Structures are given as C-alpha cells and as structure tokens.
Amino acid sequence: MNQTIETRGMAERTGKAPESIMASYLTHELRAPVTAIKLGLEIFEEQVAERLQSDEKQMLHLAIKNTGRLQGLVNDIMDYTKVLAGKMSLDFVSCDPQAIIDEVVESFQAWAISKGVRLVKEVPTEHLPRIKAEPRRIIQVLTNLISNALKFTPARGTVTIGVRMGKYEHAGTLVFRVKDTGPGIPQEHLESIFETFQQSVSNGKQSDGTGLGLTLARSMVQLHGGRIWAESWKGLGATFSFTIPIAAEDLAEPIEVYAKPVEYHGIFVDVYRKLHAVLAAFF
Question: pTM higher than 0.85, yes or no?
C-alpha cells in the first residue's frame, strides 16, 4: 500500500518551504554528477590499485570517501526536503524485524572488524510479530544509528543492536535499540542532537556527519507512527531506541498505539486541585 504521508504541517511550523524547494532543486541537480564521480573513482581504483604507491592509494581512498560523504549529504537533503514539503511517500508492508536487523548488521561487519569493534545482535528467542513499515526506511534509521555508534566506540568496544516487544506506554510496538560502549553523550545534548544540522557530540568529539542523519531518523520513525529517544551516562556509552507499530494482522487484539491520555473535566478536576493544595500545605 503506497501512500503519501502528510507532512506539510512541518513546513508551516518551520517556515522553510521556499528554502526546501531550492534545496530540492539543487540536490537533484547534484545527485547525478556526484554519483558519476564516485563510480568513476571506484572503477579507477580497481584498475590501477596495484600500480599505485601507498601515498597515492591513500589519496585516492580519501577522495572516494569524501565523495561518498557528499553523496550521503545530497541524499539526506533530498529526503529532508521531501519531509518538509509533505511529499515523503512510504510503501507500508508487513515485514520481519529480525530479517531487517540481520541485513543491517551484515552490512556493517567489515567496518566493525576494521575498527576492532564487536557487533552483537540481541533478539528474543521467541518469534516476534511483524511490523507495518517500509523496510528500506527502517534500515535507513538503523544504518544511521549504527554508523554513529561505530564512530564513537573505541577498539575492543561493543555495539549492540536489538529488538523486543514494547511494553506499558509502548504497547503495540516493537522497540529497536542500538547501544554502544563509547564515552557517552552529555545530558544537555540528548534532545538537541535530533534537531536539524546538530551533530552528535561525545566526550568533546564531534561527529563528522552531515548533521541531518538523526533529524531524518526521527522524521522517518514519526512518519511510521513511532517514537525515538536517546539515553546516555558519562563513560557508559549511549543507547538510541525507537518504536515501530506492530502489523495489525499480527496483534491478538487491536491496540491504539500511543493513545491520547484521558482528559478529565468539571468537578473531578476541581476536587483534585483542592486535594493537591491541601497535601502541598502539609508537605
């Protein structure tokens, strides 16, 4: 089922619609040449690698890496402008969360090994229900979180990727989690890191990312009807968690995910306020 998620309210709140149109045009024009440059460099590296000196190989590798970063920035801006313009289209299907985690973890194994970091999957032994999502976008969110975790985790550290059933306020969802053993994120940055162009800061070290990754991750999770948050303690690493609703056909009974809290009016509210005032006077 393909449907366009309504995100125009975002553009109205931020007042960035004109800028997003310009950014969308520029990134569209940049995407093809950047992709062509990266592909050309990769083919060139493959053909001449054996004939290059070590410093020449390093320079070529750096050029490919930086072109990849530029390509990532272009793609991030394109996705972000779609969200702002209310034109982000998601193709929801019922998908296996464990298969998604397996795919993402496999794609990061080479990088983790090169850094001396252990990747650990933490999934329940019992079968999990499917989620209602666009798999590519959930992979995009996990890719961003795992990438950040690997950047800040030192050699011999561990990055844990898991999923479990949501409980209590998260009932009706699956909770995905990415935990690292890096130095952690200052408490004052735990909220701001999800804002546009804010980069992760850990132990005084700033990420070399684009500053849009976590913003996009939050947008993608919210467009799926879920929530995302970060937790961290100094010297004990950081944990990023997000929830995605379970596919309706896999639920034993219908659950309204993140139902609005009950609102009370009238005499009950008056009694509660008076009781609260009395208790406050004593304590």
Answer: no
